[in-house]
Write a structure and sequence with these properties.
This protein is mainly beta. A hairpin with a 6-residue loop joins strand 19 (188-190) and strand 20. An eleven-stranded mixed β-sheet has the order 8-11-14-17-22-25-28-31-34-36-37. The chain is built from three helices and 37 strands. The chain starts with 5 loop residues before the first helix and ends with a helix. The protein is 11% helix and 28% strand.
């Protein structure tokens, strides 16, 4: 078990230490659930009232929160308690599952594949023809990487993920369990005889930048032609759908169960709330925010926050809801 003195903790998060303790800090906990030997955090004044009953040995608190030491327990004041706690989570993070072999005997790796130094391939993985795995790539058990795919250095792919042919992935990415990358997009047309639907071939690929993280059970479809693109630094939650030919700029965020229909374009820094849906061929410009549960039917200007279904500028939408409530009461 990892443990640190309170002075070492303070050095890591670069705060201001008030008080001292001889107890070692061996973990982190929420303020109501933390036990002795753990450090907790308070990022808002509304949680300060729980400090007196908390069993935590120490607390990290925003500078803006007025908090007094109780039972001589130390306080570390920082500008942002959430960011400080994130630093500590990295420090206390346990090591991942170990690979017994660099390439497990049960893995199937095509002879033409190029495997970078330090890369590891788990049990029952499949690595296809002309695949390139960069240095330090980790494929946990039961990952499939199909032909002509490239994966950059230090990317981690967790079990159950399927990466289809011709996908290009950058470095330092993380793909959680059961991600699907490069499946066919959703495209059909009426048959000539009018009696059914004909599948539209999707012959493009998926291109993913550096430092991208994709949550469990999310899907990124290949393009009909050209590429579906996910830019550097994008963070995608669980159960997210990204349709064919979408283009995401840098550092976009998509929360769980949200979805992009085909050919949606996101600028840099766009935030999509949970369960939000974006109509096909829509552009959401840089810095815009789509609130959770919203349905975007038209382009969103840069920096605007929209909400509702159909989505509209947030202040205007709230005015509409107030007016409707007043009308309903009259």
């Amino acid at each position: 078990m990892k443990s640190f003195s309170i002075q070492e903790i303070n050095a890591i998060i670069e705060g201001t230490l008030i008080g001292d303790t001889s107890n070692r800090i061996n973990g982190l906990g929420e303020i109501k659930e933390a036990s002795e030997g753990q450090i907790t955090f308070i990022g808002s004044s509304k949680y300060a009232k729980f400090w007196s009953d908390s069993k935590a040995t120490a607390v990290i608190v925003n500078e803006s929160v007025n908090l007094e030491s109780i039972d001589s327990r130390p306080i570390i004041k920082v500008k942002n308690a959430d960011l400080a706690m994130a630093k500590l989570l990295e420090v206390f993070s346990p090591a991942g599952p170990e690979f017994e072999f660099d390439i497990h005997p049960s893995a199937v790796v095509h002879q033409s594949a190029k495997i970078g130094e330090g890369a590891k391939i788990g049990a029952n993985c499949y690595v296809g023809k002309n695949v390139i795995l960069g240095k330090g790539v980790l494929l946990y058990p039961n990952v499939s990487v199909f032909d002509d795919t490239t994966i950059g250095d230090n990317t981690t792919v967790w079990s159950g993920t399927v990466i289809r042919e011709r996908t290009q992935i950058g470095s330092h990415c993380i793909f959680h369990n059961n991600v699907s990358i490069g499946a066919d997009g959703f495209g059909y047309r009426p048959s000539d005889d009018g009696r059914g639907l004909v599948k539209v071939p999707h012959i493009g690929n998926v291109k993913i930048g550096h430092y991208v993280e994709v949550g469990a059970n999310s899907c990124i479809d290949r393009a009909k032609f050209s590429s579906t693109i996910v830019g550097d630094g994008c963070k995608i939650d669980n159960l997210v759908q990204i349709g064919h030919n979408c283009v995401m700029g840098r550092f976009c965020i998509m929360a769980g169960s949200s979805g992009l229909a085909g050919s949606v374009t996101l600028g840099d820094g766009v935030i999509i709330g949970g369960s939000a849906s974006i109509k096909d061929h829509t552009t959401i410009h840089s810095g815009a925010v789509v609130a959770a549960g919203s349905g975007v039917m038209k382009d969103v200007p840069a920096g605007m926050t929209v909400l509702g279904y159909p989505a509209a500028e947030s202040k205007e939408k709230l005015k509409q809801w107030v007016a409707l409530r007043k009308l309903a009461r009259s």
